[in-house]
């Protein structure tokens, strides 16, 4: 199931996107504040993030940059009224994978989400990262920035489980 976090302060638009995507068997959570999206992302990562540019407590481009600093491969799509070329270019430069100008057709939005997810399926998942920490599964090595950290095999396995399940709660039994 595709899980969507949608940052949208317009209740009508948020509701219509949520209803349509849920009819397509997506799970959608709409947030009307950037701060709420950040809190949710720290706790759990969705399949895709949809961002409005103008929000009551900040700008979607700031949130996009914040997400990209932490999670390189999470798909991000802007849904915004800001349709001039400068804004579109800025959106992509900030890390967006797609940019949709309002008003838009809901079926086209869903098709764009599916197309984006097809493209990222082939991404090499041999390296996992969280902030400055990077785990290389091919070399079974852990790095802090560019410096390799020596860890024991049990420590490596625990770190691997935690990083593969970033944003999820892991029980002691799972470790």
TrEMBL record:
Gene3D superfamilies: 3.40.50.2300, 6.10.250.690, Winged helix-like DNA-binding domain superfamily/Winged helix DNA-binding domain
Pfam families, per database record: Response_reg
Residues covered by the OmpR/PhoB-type domain: 125-175
Domain named Response regulatory: residues: 3-117
GO molecular function ontology, one term from the record: phosphorelay response regulator activity
Name of the protein described by the UniProt record: Stage 0 sporulation protein A homolog
A cellular component annotation (GO) from this entry: protein-DNA complex
UniProt source species: Candidatus Enterenecus faecium
Protein's UniProt keywords contain Transcription regulation: yes
Domain of life of the organism encoding this protein: Bacteria
């Amino acid at each position: 199931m595709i899980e969507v976090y949608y940052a949208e302060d317009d209740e009508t638009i948020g509701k219509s996107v949520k209803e349509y995507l849920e009819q397509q068997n997506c799970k959608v959570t709409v947030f009307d504040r950037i701060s709420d999206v950040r809190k949710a992302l720290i706790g759990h990562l969705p399949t895709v993030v949809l961002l409005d540019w103008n929000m009551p407590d900040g700008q979607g481009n700031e949130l996009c940059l914040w997400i990209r600093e932490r999670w390189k491969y999470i798909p991000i799509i802007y849904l915004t009224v800001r349709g001039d070329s400068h804004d579109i270019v800025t959106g992509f430069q900030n890390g967006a994978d797609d940019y949709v100008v309002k008003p838009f057709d809901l079926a086209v939005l869903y098709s764009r989400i599916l197309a984006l997810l097809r493209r990222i399926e082939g991404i090499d998942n041999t390296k996992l990262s969280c902030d400055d920490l990077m785990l290389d599964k091919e070399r079974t090595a852990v790095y802090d920035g560019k410096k390799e950290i020596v860890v024991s095999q049990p420590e490596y396995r625990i770190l691997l489980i935690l990083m593969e399940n970033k944003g999820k709660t892991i029980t002691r039994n799972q470790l």
